[in-house]
Amino acid sequence: MAKKPTTPKTTEPSSLTAATKPVEATATKPAPKKAAKAKAPAKSTAPRTQVKAAAVTKPAASITPADIALRAYFIAEKRQKLGLPGDSTNDWVEAERQLKAEAAVAKAKK
């Protein structure tokens, strides 16, 4: 006895493209309501005055470990290029000393 060919579980053949698929009647949803626009404040008739912004200055910048690491890297590069003895700890300490000295000079100028 021969087996009956099985049909796919989907109702549409897979060989149909989007252009040839039958259009099914579906209920359409109403478009979402648009948000109400905010009302603009009433314009005053008083003349505007010019206000100059205060000069923005950075607060006394603290020295971050990233700043020290970058300076220590350059100190190590120079030290190795010149063939001088030393290690990374000494480079770190020297970088920290230099940055603190530069911060003190910059603070004294203000």
Distance from N terminus to C terminus (CA atoms, Å) equals: 102 Å
Q: What is Rg?
A: 37 Å
Q: What percent of residues adopt helix (DSSP H or I)? A: 25-40%
Helix tally equals 2
Strand residue content: under 5%
Q: What oligomeric state is this?
A: single chain
Topology:
Blueprint: H1 65-82, H2 88-109
Helix pairs in contact: 1-2
Record keyword descriptors for this entry.
110 residues
Q: What do these coordinates show?
A:
The N and C termini lie far apart (102 Å). The protein has 110 residues and is mainly α. It has 2 helices and no strands. Helix 1 crosses helix 2 (88-109). The mean pLDDT is 75. The chain has helices spanning 65-82, 88-109. The radius of gyration is 37 Å and the shape is flat.
Summarize the structure.
The chain is mainly alpha-helical. The chain is 36% helix and 0% strand. It is flat and about 85 Å long.
